[in-house]
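MODEL INPUT / OUTPUT PAIR
PAIR INDEX: 1
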Amino acid sequence: MRTVDLNQLPLFIAVAEASSMSEAARRLSLPKSSVSRGISALEASLGVQLFHRTTRQVRLTTAGAAFLEKTRPLVAMVRDATQELPEQADAPSGTLRLTAPIDFGLTLLPELCSLFTTRYPAVVLDVHLSNQTEDLVGQGFDLALRISGRLEDSTLVARKLSALEFKLYAAPGHLARSGTPRNLEELAAFDFVSFQATPRALPFKPRVKVKADDVMFAWHAVRAGLGVGALPSFVAHADVAAGKLVNVVPRWSVLAGALWFVHPRSAHVPRKVTAFRDLVLEHLRAHPLCPA
């Protein structure tokens, strides 16, 4: 009967999911050498080769794939059980890996992270910003904040946090040079900074001065005085409060998708995930993204 060190199973699963010793080591916060030694020891214990190794990646052998199918549910069950122990319920700890869109990540997420780590100092946040829809399970993320019209994925749990809206903004300097529009008809004569589909959301054809495919560039262009722009209100909110942007024709706004909290489906959601979700909901109740 072969004896296996159970501590080596998370190493094996991490390498299998990442197809890389280096990436698995990064996700586990371990030296690459420790991961490599652990895999070699596991293969020696089992008496089979689990991976084909090349200079660029590692791939599961047939035996490795069969072993992964049997061990992954067991390791996930043990991990969930330890995270849900009663004595840990009120004290989230460990690393929380999350991903979010770049615009949200550069505007509101830092404050949320600060609030969370202050409340739960035993948690380390590993934040990945991307406008791509990341594979949460495959890439080892605990949760995602996503901006979308609707989310459909049976392997994930999604909770709508808030509707999102676009409003019209301009820099004070631009308004000092061009005047302040009193209505949408007057706004049609102003230089406009366009982000993707925003012109279609307007009830008039804008005089586009700058066209961008990135909302953060559009935001900086509006702040630099290049024209009026339709921006997500959560992006512009702090600048309005600081006097760096002005909400022009404030009666106009348009809803544009929603902010979602997404995490892998599990019978036992880790406490650190639910704690982050609850903090975000608490913050949004006090500081709504679409104030009435």
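PAIR INDEX: 2
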Amino acid sequence: MPYQEHHMIKVDRESGEIHSIIMNGETLDTDDGETWFLPKGLIGEIAVNDLPDDAVFEICSRIENSVVMLDTVPIRLQRIGDNRVRLDFDDSGTRKYWDGTIGFKPYMEAKKSIVEERASEVGDVSLESYDDDGAWIHLEYSAQVDAEKLVTAVQLAEQIAAEIDGAAEMRLGVELWAPKTVENEREFTLGIVLPILRKLGFQNVKYNHGKREFGRDIVFARITEFKELEFWGAQVKFGDIAGGVDADIAMLLSQLDDAFKMPFYDLYTKQKQRISKLAIIISGKFTENAIEKICEKIESHAVRNNVLFIDGEKLQTLAEQFRSPA
């Protein structure tokens, strides 16, 4: 049985057709021999260029007793070139099982509008189809992204899906701080902060949370009045920041220092860049003179003048200006 093997992925073929795919020692499941279910735990350090270009992978959280468990809308991924993948999102559902605080139809129509606007304004997604048969609503959209590692492509896919959801909820006026809507820093960043940054006109918005974030959970840019790119960063926290907690203040100051000193590689300009401004964005409040205490400990006046503090109340105010009229 001929096969191709690249490090942690092995593809067995029969008469040119894929017979099986083994990833990091585990054989992937498939229903039709064309789409293969890929649990995120098997992705590891696999390179995008090691993926076969004639296979589609559907990302899932895990598989239990032959049941595919999803933690987002169904996302399919296929390599279409050198370090480049196509992402397909199948955001479908039925009115019968909908229990949202707003109607299913206006919610899905809002998502459709967000995809269309993003396709026009940013150009990184495309609306493939939208169909409402009275019971089910099918929304399909796609994107093409550059990534060297498969894990990066999956993270970008999840970021896009979460941003679409968050932007739709913001447009409909869903209470941003509802406990069931946002439960942790990642959901707060993807579902609320990133959509607001895009609506404010920032470009090249990228969620950067990980070991090499260097004080920047998000990097983004804007075109200045002089028609040049100005790079920003954001440090995001879920909850309050209290001036009376010395450890929290010390950690923020360390992250702030790293954010300005450490360059980052910008995927869009293909160059190393440094940020000019840093926003500290939190879902709660700055209490016990936290802002004053942080500013007092920033030695450089240039740095101090380029740090912004944005709390949950300010975010709510920003979000409200993007809400659709009733």
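PAIR 2 NOTE: The radius of gyration is 22 Å.
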